[in-house]
Amino acid sequence: MSVRVKGLRFAYRNFILRVDELSFATGQTTSIVGPNGAGKTTLLKCVGAVLPVSKGTLFVDGEDFALLKSRERARLVSYVPQEHGAAFNYLVFDFVLMGRAPYVPIFSTPSAEDVRIAEEALDFVGLGSYAERTYAELSSGERRLVLIARALAQQSDILLLDEPTTFLDPKHEREVLELVRKLAAEKEKTILLTLHNLEMAVQYSDNMVFLKGGEVVAWGRAEEVFKEPLLRAVYDMEMKVIDWNGRKIVLR
Amino acid sequence: MEVARKFFRFMAVALFMVCGFMKVMATTHLAGEKRTVKDTLGRIIQIPDRVERILSLQPEITRILVALEAGDKLVGLDYFVRRDDHLFKIIFPAQERLPVVSKPDDSVNKEVVVALRPDIIFASPSELLVPDSIQQALGIPVVALSSLGSFRNLLDEIELVGRVTGREARASELISFFNENMNAIRQTVGSLSPERRPRVYLAFWSSLLRTPVDYGPVTAAGGVNVAAGLLPTHPGSPGAVVTLEQIIAWDPDVILVHGNYPPSERRVTVEQVVSDKRLRSLKAVRNGHVFYTFGYWYWWDPAQVLVETLYLVKLFYPEKLRDFELEAAGNTIFEKFYGQAGLFSKLGEALAFHDWIKEK
Amino acid sequence: MTGSKKNKKKRSLQVFLLVLPLLLFVISLGIGSYAISPRDLVGTLISTISPSSYPDIPPVYRDVLFRIRLPRLLLAMAIGASLSVAGASLQAIFRNPLVNEYILGISSGAAFGAALSLVFLGRAFPPHVSAFLFGILAVLAVIGIAGRGETASLISLLLTGVIVSAFFSALLSVVEFFASPYVLQALFFWLMGSLALAGWRDLAISLPLIIAGLLFLILFRWRLNVLSTGTDEARALGVHVQREKILVIFLATLITASATAVVGIIGWVGLIVPHLVRLMVGTDNRLVIPLSAATGASFLLLADDIIRGISPLEIPIGIFTSILGIPLFLFLLKKAKRVWL
Questions:
Q1: C341 touching A, CB under 8 A?
Q2: C336: contact with A, CB 8 A cutoff
Q3: Looking at the domain B31-170, which fold is it?
Q4: What percent of the residues of chain B are helix, what percent strand, and what percent coil, each to the nearest 5?
């Protein structure tokens, strides 16, 4: 499932996101990077139907996103926030089950099939045995995985992850990104994620988009686009990129 | 610096001692002119032996003051006697010159009170915290008094008010008049055995379930208040709220409904009680023994409560006072208290009581 | 404990909570100032169907049972269920466990409506209709002022609720000024929340709306889980957040206003009962909503039983729920960590 952005505008009070042309091909993983305040989360939220977009600016698999019903949108795109801000301490399983919302009629409760899909999603992220635990009992890394499981339960082909690795220790960082890779490989999902960690970004994505000040500075295949002059322009500082055993390392 | 500090400390101590000395002197000076009273809320207060400027927030006391011909000592009124009392304007026309100092929520405008410089303030005990708050804020003695349904208390009030206003003679006169009438009533009904006394439930105020736990006229007229002995809702309150089932359990012989309201303002009516299906098994309802009586009107009017007792004797024992004319007697009693003729009849117009006072 | 044993224990608890109000109802039929022995109670019940089997049941027993106790108990259950479900639903959509069913101004609006009716319309009109209308009006005012668009954040709704409540309280003081002391007494009695004169008419007025509202909220229960996770996340899950939030507020307001119009203000129920239920069965609203209805019904039945049983005096149930509610709430706060984040 492909995503195409065309002439997208989103304005906050002091900031405007302007994306004239951007596309994400099916089954590919794309990282959106840039300095703070560049508009990474905003862009993700626009694609994720969290922020409203105007007609003719966002096309998912050829369909105008703004014309779809919210339920239909949620079946196409799922969004994993950085952190979850609810007030109630749900069971992990009940939490993942919420991902079935686009499929459960408004005055109904989830069916046995919905339960099965939620179980599968939880298993996929490796937390199948955690079903009866409560959200508060989990570590940050585990919580992140549960959020991803919920997004998986939505069975959408497009998955958006907002800063999935922040606040995680290196081991869990890798775990999450490996999971992302697995999702792309086994489930052929089109994945967009925002990342701060450039090395991880370039290692785990097929494509990269560089945002600065609400505008796209560059985008394309990770290998091709990740160059020092670009990094300097985007981050306003000297950086050195070293190739080491096929891995790119950034020195600041 | 040290010297200055020592000096100030000396001055502070000296000032303190001087004030203390003065306070002692003040107390000693006034001690001979004060008496100690205990009010209805159990508060012990020192009040002056004689007062010239009275603020009454308690309509019962206001009415007593006027009956004692001490109305000229009033410096201010509460909102009720001005706005809601049926007869006060007629009884005491001078009231229109007096400022109203309280509001229906029983709050008091303290600044106006201070400006009026009363020697004493009479308050209603049903407002538990108001007497203390006014006394503490203004330093004026506040006495919370009410008969709470007892004739003994009513007469004690008349005596106390008479004493502090120098109208002892007039107070005696009214108390004797009251007692003479009470004796006559006692003789009429006194010989009745307890079984013959009707058991009475009083539905007062705005609800079928609110009832006074002690109501002198009923007991004096030879009835038995079924709610006697219950705890009132709070100290200083005359009434309790009972459950509907309790009224049915009591199965009173007579139900008396609060009749001091003009018909349009009555919240509980005899018709309502008689047609309420839940009460249809009560013998009072089946026998048609549901009547109005006067009841409180922000506590008592001493004349009205005497007439009410006579009315109830006539109601409970019609054969005893068969030829007794209530309205004429009522006018006489009111004239004794307030010096004007026809006051009871005027009350009748306000309450439309000719519908329910059955004159035979 | 093995998984299935734990599940069985959970199931039994849930069934118990569902059945409890029915048990209490049966017991409550025997409680009241008018003493009726259990044998006579059964006799009275049976004699309605076949009068011949119990011919010497005095008619007063039937009056007490069917005209006084029965409507009062049913009303207690309906009110308890309404306030609890309203509280639980609003807690879910406001994502705040401290929310109660009155935060959007219903109690102040209803109090003002009742006062208006008592003072100006007199005895002829029961204060129910006016109380109901102004309760709804208060919430409409809150929603209207706080904004219907995307900008209507939950904080702004809550703050507007506070302001609208204050406004109606001020208006109430004005109306009180015009009231005679005896009308004021009637008003205070109503404000304290009382089932004292509950009759079939009160049930007839309030029950249809309460049942309709409860039904829809119970059907909506799983959706409340989704709504309670946060606006952005709910939106990403395909939920039309604004619309559904308004729907829940509307339903909760309907049942709360219907309940309040008939018996006055009974506090703490919508705050305490849902939390009690969450402590027992967890936060999943599929369980919390229906069990709050059942437990709320039990709670009020129990409170009313205590009031009716201990004394011939009629203690307003609103005072009682406060007396029970405050220490209960403090106890719940200590256990809060288990269900609140």
A1: yes
A2: no
A3: Rossmann fold (3.40.50)
A4: 50, 15, 35
